[in-house]
Design brief:
428 residues; mainly beta; 4-stranded antiparallel beta sheet; 39% strand; repeat
Length: 428
């Protein structure tokens, strides 16, 4: 019996068995790199697992390959802030890939307080024939050296190494909720509840505060920052969303501190629909630029909205997500599920958007008058269950095809295993 269990663990099928899942194994974020060849996942245990896509089979050239484990490393460890008597979790909040410049890959990972830059590289050769140390790495006695040797590189089994290159810390008082790499590929920003900091990838001991909404009196605090993202093409432009359901577009050329926004996007609330839960469900949990940079997509608890940067008064499109939950908000409030955060994502052509378990196709063809063509909703993905809540989304940027989406869901139903995580990849 024990032998069978060991065999099951060895062939990795235990990853799909919820009986072996622990709290630390629950995936907290996922992110494809720009080509879709690599997929990075972060979990509550502070680990980052990078999957690599297999090459297409010669027998089935049109079949998409599977993703297998490429590298695994411990990104963050639990810490304790002795000044504030605060325990800092190791959970990975966000992962962002940097554009590939050479044979190595680089990614940013963050927990609540610290951002780290990691280098992932392959090594299939090892140096041999050192003069000052032996093959075991021990220093040799210089008096025993009678001749000089030229070191050579010998083939070895392929080894993937993950090396921390930069650690960006001690800049956030509150929990980091998002990071975004700039299109200049030299800077990135990290965002917490009240501030946004701008970092240079080569400088770890200094950052610039570009947004600060902290009031002099914390009792006057009315909203917090929930997400922020750089424009995909304009390195001076970024947006951030708030818990009040508003989005602010800022231009860093205007001032060093972007307290005054360039554009303000907010949909007026219908007084007839206002309730006790209105402010909670209107909080924006995610904001994403389209790849063209023309549109914004925002996600709140029950809707996904697409905004045109040239029209601030109302969203261009609004999609209802899980509308049946409107009648169950009271129960969701009692079990705290109403505070769950959800993400949204574009595919590589900006034609599809994914939110929760509904994929929407949007025709982005523009007519000569500049108006969007009709939209068509596709129910390509059914819900797993009404007791299932999608909390992580990732999109492969593929400009020639539709996207691959990876979803992870935490089951909150009492009939299912507690804290179990389920992942599935979809092609469409």
């Amino acid at each position: 019996m024990d032998e069978d269990i060991d065999t099951r663990k060895i062939n990795n099928s235990f990853l799909r068995d919820h009986n072996y899942a622990t709290e630390a194994d629950i995936i907290s974020t996922v992110e494809f790199n720009s080509t879709g060849e690599l997929l990075a996942t972060g979990d509550k245990g502070g680990r980052v697992v990078v999957f690599q896509r297999e090459q297409e089979s010669k027998n089935q050239p049109h079949r998409r390959g599977e993703y297998n484990v490429y590298s695994t490393f411990q990104s963050h460890e639990p810490e304790f802030d002795y000044l504030k008597s605060l325990e800092i979790e190791e959970k990975i909040n966000k992962i962002r890939w940097l554009p590939q410049q050479n044979a190595a890959y680089f990614l940013l990972s963050t927990n609540d307080k610290t951002v780290k830059l990691w280098k992932i590289s392959e090594r299939d050769k090892r140096p041999e024939g050192y003069n000052l140390k032996d093959e075991d790495g021990r220093i040799r006695d210089p008096t025993t050296i009678t001749a000089l040797r030229v070191p050579v590189l010998r083939p070895m089994d392929l080894m993937v190494e993950a090396t921390p290159r930069r650690v960006f810390s001690n800049a956030h008082t509150y929990h980091i909720n998002s990071i975004s790499v700039n299109s200049d590929y030299e800077t990135y920003m990290s965002t917490d509840d009240l501030r946004i900091n701008l970092w240079h990838l080569e400088i770890t001991n200094r950052s610039f505060n570009i947004v600060d909404i902290k009031p002099a009196n914390m009792e006057e605090l009315t909203e917090v920052i929930t997400a922020a993202e750089f424009h995909p093409n304009q390195c001076n432009t970024f947006v951030y969303s708030s818990s009040k359901g508003s989005i602010r577009l800022c231009d860093m050329r205007a001032a060093a501190l972007c307290d005054n926004h360039s554009k303000f996007f907010e949909e007026p609330e219908d007084p007839s629909n206002r309730s006790f839960f209105s402010e909670i469900i209107s909080s924006i949990s995610d904001v994403k630029f389209s790849h063209s940079g023309r549109y914004l997509m925002t996600r709140d608890y029950l809707t996904v909205k697409v905004w045109d940067l040239n029209m601030e008064s109302k969203p261009l499109e609004t999609y209802q997500v899980h509308d049946y939950l409107r009648s169950k908000l009271c129960s969701l409030y009692e079990n705290d599920c109403i505070f769950d955060k959800f993400e949204c994502v574009w595919n590589g052509t900006d034609r599809y958007s994914l939110k929760s378990f509904v994929i929407t196709e949007r025709d982005t063809g523009v007519n000569p008058q500049g108006e969007l063509a009709d939209l068509k909703r596709l129910d390509l993905l059914a819900e797993f269950s009404r007791n299932t809540w999608l909390n992580i989304l990732a999109s492969k940027a593929d400009c020639n095809h539709c996207t691959e989406i990876l979803c992870t869901a935490n089951f909150r139903s009492p009939e299912t295993v507690k804290n179990a995580t389920m992942a599935a990849a979809y092609d469409f």
